[in-house]
Amino acid sequence: MKNTKTIKINEIFYSLQGEGTDIGFPTIFIRLTGCNLRCTYCDTKYAYYDGKEMSISKILTALSKWNCNRICITGGEPLLQKNIFSLISQLRKKNYEISIETNGSLNITKLTQLAVAIKMDVKLPTSGENHKMQLQNVSKLRITDELKFIIGNKTDFISAKTIIETHKPTCNIIMQPIWGKVKNLANWILKHQLNVRYSPQLHKILWGETKGK
Ligand code: SF4
């Protein structure tokens, strides 16, 4: 039976995962329209409003052209759309391996009950949106999930370190420099002996800031 529930989609594309623990794996990205934040360094402003409503059946058909089992749901902020949980359920029925990127400002409790890898940001001072974070989310992340900090300067780094020490997440922790801005992040991680993974943005190294890559 066709699933006629709709979701506003900005783009669906196939590329290499550019960030985090799955870096380098071929992945299908489903980018949803809309975001409740306006981070200073946002590189996906085109996803704030642009997109078209697609039924879940049509989304599944669009995915089938690639021989790929790995899906990353991203945005924007995917949790803003009420039919996201129906989409996840249909993707699970097709045995896709799913990760979902969320910006840390919305409650993730419902997601933690599902077989999806949560990749959650915690926004730091450089973003201008750090005051909107729900830091109680951090300790809800499971061992298979991922917590990501985008670092713009030393203040951001120290702020991330404090959040780690306070909330003691058990998941993978990623630190990623803002593209082209921070040179010393690797040295700070080593100097402070933090058990985190430095992540570049592979897609930008390979293709620059090209949309749909
Ligand atoms: S949460 Fe992501 S999509 Fe939204 S403004 Fe920040 S960087 Fe951009």
Characterise the protein shown here.
With 213 residues, the chain is of the alpha/beta class. Helices cover 21% and strands 24% of the residues. It has helices at residues 56-63, 84-93, 154-167, 185-191, 202-207; strands at residues 6-16, 26-32, 52-55, 70-74, 97-102, 117-121, 146-151, 172-177, 197-198. Strands 3-1-2-4-5-6-7-8-9 form a 9-stranded mixed sheet. Helix 2 (84-93) links the parallel strand 4 and strand 5 (97-102). The longest helix has 14 residues, at 154-167. The protein is globular, with a radius of gyration of 17 Å. It starts with 5 loop residues before the first strand and ends in a 6-residue tail after the last helix. The structure holds iron/sulfur cluster. Iron/sulfur cluster binds at residues 35, 37-39, 42, 44, 75-77, 103.
Rg is: 17 Å
Bound molecules: iron/sulfur cluster
Strand content: 15-25%
Shape: globular
What is the spatial order of strands in the main beta sheet? 3-1-2-4-5-6-7-8-9
Strand/helix succession: EEEHEHEEEHEHEH
What distance lies between the first and last C-alpha atoms, to the nearest angstrom? 33 Å
How can the largest sheet be summarized? 9 strands, mixed
Structure class:
alpha/beta
Uncertain regions spanning at least 5 consecutive residues: none
The number of E-state strands comes to 9
Number of helices: 5
Helical fraction: 10-25%
Instruction: Report the average pLDDT across residues.
Output: 95
